[in-house]
Amino acid sequence: MYDVVVIGGGPAGMAAAIKAKELGLNVLLLDENDYLGGILPQCIHPGFGIHYFREELTGPEFAHRLKERLKELRVKVKGNARVLSIENYSDLEKVVTFVSPEGIFDVRTKTIIYAAGARERHAFEIGIVGDRVAGIYTAGEAQTLMDIYGIMPGKEIVIVGSGDVGLIMARRFALEGARVKAVIELMPYPGGLARNIMILRDFNIPLYLSHKVVEVRGRGRVKRVKVVKVDENLRETGEEFWISCDTLIISAGLIPNVKLLKEVGVEIDPATGGPVVNDRLETSVPGIFVAGNALVINDLVDYVAEQGELAAEGAKEFVENEGIGTKRWIRLKRGQNVRLLAPHYLSGERDVWIYARVSKPMENVAVEFPEIGKRIRLPVVKPAEMLRIRLRKKEIARAKGAITMEVVPL
Amino acid sequence: MKKLRIAIIGAGITGASIARVLSRYENLEVHLIDKNPDVGWGVSKANTAIIHGGYDDDPDKYPVRARLCVRGNRLWHQWVKELEIPHVWNGALVVALKEEDFDELEKLLERGRRNGVPEMRIVEGEELFRLEPGLTKEALGALWVPIVGQIGPISAVIAIAENAVANGVKTHLETEVTGIRVERGEVKGVETNEGFIKADIVINAAGLYADEIARMVGVDYFEIHPRKGEYWIFDEGIPGPRRVLFPTPTPISKGIVVTTEISGHLMIGPNAQDLPAEEKDNLATTREGLEEVWEGAKKLWPNLPPRDKVIRTFTGLRPEPTGGDFIIKAEEVWGFINVAGIRSPGLTSAPAIAYEVVEIIRRDLGIELVEKKKWNPYRRDITHFFALPREKANEFIKRNPAYGRIVCRCNKVSEGDVLEAIERMKFLAIKTPSVDSVKFRTKATTGTCQGSFCRPRIIQILAREYGVEPWQVTLKGKGSEIGIGDVKVLLRREA
Ligand SMILES: Cc1cc2nc3c(=O)[nH]c(=O)nc-3n(C[C@H](O)[C@H](O)[C@H](O)COP(=O)(O)OP(=O)(O)OC[C@H]3O[C@@H](n4cnc5c(N)ncnc54)[C@H](O)[C@@H]3O)c2cc1C
């Protein structure tokens, strides 16, 4: 029986497996691909690892470092292994069933670290109508086509969504000689990190804020898309125009991939789309931990890796004590201008990192936890940038009941 | 024995069914022709997929539809077994929301009896909600039609075509009929973009285009116009009805249906919007149409999910003929048989239509048909990894490790499934590799993520097996290529 089976070999899963092994646990890492790294190998741009490795790396480089470490530690890794189901035999014993080219196998384990990442929202989900033609890709799919398989999808590109992924794809297309005709953003402000918004200026790409793509027309292939302007309540104003293009890239956000967790009955937080967790990143099913984008959509790989390590520490405690020994959990609640947060329950036995996102951008704000009298000033907050805030053990100890997190103007 | 050559124009459910039934005869050489790259990509691709009960076609107004629907329903019970077509016999409820609706239900009941539909009755109260617990509480009663079922329509066309080819039918895909040669009042064959195909009998099963084909031999007493219907399909795990739910019908449509389609997804639709005859390829979904469907469905099924739980919206075009009834007959030009205006319930009626055509060949053309000593009625379904019990799955993997490599995560489709699909595509002589051909055979790309993970891998496998460059693989045939070249093509200024 394993101490921990890690599901998913992206940065969260690799970091979790490494840490678990370093902590002396008996680990198995499973991934459905025949390579490790999750989406990192397709992210050939820099911007990875500034916090984690204190160096700016590309996605493949970041993945490489973790892979080397896995090798050094002789962590058992199984590729081409698609997990079909998780079964919760008892609190102390779980069965993971996976299929691989060698057959279908069951492995028994005390804990699971689930790090299966996220999926992208597609065109239908965001209400685009019209013809179902070639040339409509999610950003990740286009990235895979270009950077893993060497295929150029098209030459006149419209991108939906100004988040980091959309902006990075805008640059990627421009660098390969395509004409990026527009980036269309529903919200009145751009969705990406400031450093990525520079891309638009560098490559002279128009950004339409408060606009959305509503329709695609074409025969075999995309020919043009219809764009409409929206007001501050995101209602359509009636002002509309067409852009001719042969490719439409959808970069409209990610959704944690939690199907297997739902099947074992893990409680899901509708705000994050990921599971409800405590400060050990343990879900509502004891011994199942989560990390990375399966927990909450992160914008930096460094946080993802950090969550992997945290989950591994949780697994270690669980294995040693046959469970997480905490007696009392303090609920962390969302207050004003906090769209989502994790973890949801704090033990007060240790310092924790809170990962949160605001609903709307604001300047000169305070992040407040009124019940414990904690306040942090920030010059700006943006939905695109995850807030990462440390709560100290002694601060949490001041709480009588739940703690609220809110972001208020100064 | 001199063989009679038969050209069937159109490899939809109708043409394929005719080909299968005709493949039974020793003295026929059957050619199945379609302009699309694969079978079933016309009207048969996008519809409600229901095997209707046969109660709503008025035998006075639409005698052919009324007769063939019930017979088709009965035949499907046999065909789905012989051909291993995915199906469910879950019955339908035609729901009354107002007192007046009962008059219409009584009419349907009476009509159904005349058409020979067994086991129908009106249910009310507790019994109604026992049959369908999630139905709107506003429902007053319903006509209960147990013989209604659902099939995978495209799976059905593929299965039928595979069986037909196994029995000697020859397919001609990407072959568009551009003219029909007639000499001294008899057909001699069809002109196509791929050359002339000789034929003694030409069967027009061209769906939306059947009027254009008929005009090629001078038959112009009918016209086909498209009637658009739009649909929503929702993500798995969203509770849908156990039965097929219809509203009480109106004169132009059976109304917006709420159902759990064959692979377990909640589906709602269609509305009905008449388009001009020139818009036979207008398959665009529209916001107004989808809105109408939403409002309609809500009346029967108030518990609709949030709209972003949609995984796909799509459109179908019904081929509406002048007069409204199916046109199935031998025309003046000897050897030319029209099977036109096959609107709903054409899917249901298709097997019965095929036997009708045999009758016409025998009776009206006076041709004696000789049965083959060995005709194979069976066809084995493609392997679906997701449906295999564990020991079976392990056997498959041992035989071929590709069955242990999952390509589509959402629907658990293995590389082995995909390879088998490609083998079967080649068996039907499909020339252009397309993701949709794999999709319709395996269900890959139809899950929650709509293919963003698995499409690139399917493209690779198709490219390898068809020996083409990956960017030349298409989504749905020529003109829908996945890419424009390798990733450096624009920098080299070649594209
Ligand atoms: C919205 C909607 C809902 C429906 N719901 C149901 C239902 O629930 N139950 C039911 O029983 N029926 C239903 N129907 C009806 C059913 O789908 C049709 O009756 C049936 O699919 C018609 O099949 P077909 O083979 O006649 O036509 P098609 O499937 O269109 O086949 C005709 C083929 O001919 C080919 N062709 C045309 N012109 C040429 C040419 N010149 N050269 C070569 N090839 C050519 C086309 O490419 C096409 O593949 C529905 C239809 C629609 C649109």
TrEMBL record, chain A:
<keyword id="KW-0560">Oxidoreductase</keyword>
<protein>
    <submittedName>
        <fullName>NADH oxidase</fullName>
    </submittedName>
</protein>
<dbReference type="Pfam" id="PF07992">
    <property type="entry name" value="Pyr_redox_2"/>
</dbReference>
<dbReference type="InterPro" id="IPR051691">
    <property type="entry name" value="Metab_Enz_Cyan_OpOx_G3PDH"/>
</dbReference>
<feature type="domain" description="FAD/NAD(P)-binding">
    <location>
        <begin position="2"/>
        <end position="295"/>
    </location>
</feature>
<dbReference type="GO" id="GO:0016491">
    <property type="term" value="F:oxidoreductase activity"/>
</dbReference>
<dbReference type="InterPro" id="IPR023753">
    <property type="entry name" value="FAD/NAD-binding_dom"/>
</dbReference>
<dbReference type="InterPro" id="IPR036188">
    <property type="entry name" value="FAD/NAD-bd_sf"/>
</dbReference>
UniProtKB/TrEMBL annotation, chain B:
<dbReference type="InterPro" id="IPR007419">
    <property type="entry name" value="BFD-like_2Fe2S-bd_dom"/>
</dbReference>
<dbReference type="Pfam" id="PF04324">
    <property type="entry name" value="Fer2_BFD"/>
</dbReference>
<dbReference type="Pfam" id="PF01266">
    <property type="entry name" value="DAO"/>
</dbReference>
<dbReference type="InterPro" id="IPR041854">
    <property type="entry name" value="BFD-like_2Fe2S-bd_dom_sf"/>
</dbReference>
<dbReference type="InterPro" id="IPR036188">
    <property type="entry name" value="FAD/NAD-bd_sf"/>
</dbReference>
<dbReference type="InterPro" id="IPR052745">
    <property type="entry name" value="G3P_Oxidase/Oxidoreductase"/>
</dbReference>
<protein>
    <submittedName>
        <fullName>Anaerobic glycerol 3-phosphate dehydrogenase</fullName>
    </submittedName>
</protein>
<feature type="domain" description="FAD dependent oxidoreductase">
    <location>
        <begin position="5"/>
        <end position="359"/>
    </location>
</feature>
<dbReference type="InterPro" id="IPR006076">
    <property type="entry name" value="FAD-dep_OxRdtase"/>
</dbReference>
<feature type="domain" description="BFD-like [2Fe-2S]-binding">
    <location>
        <begin position="406"/>
        <end position="464"/>
    </location>
</feature>
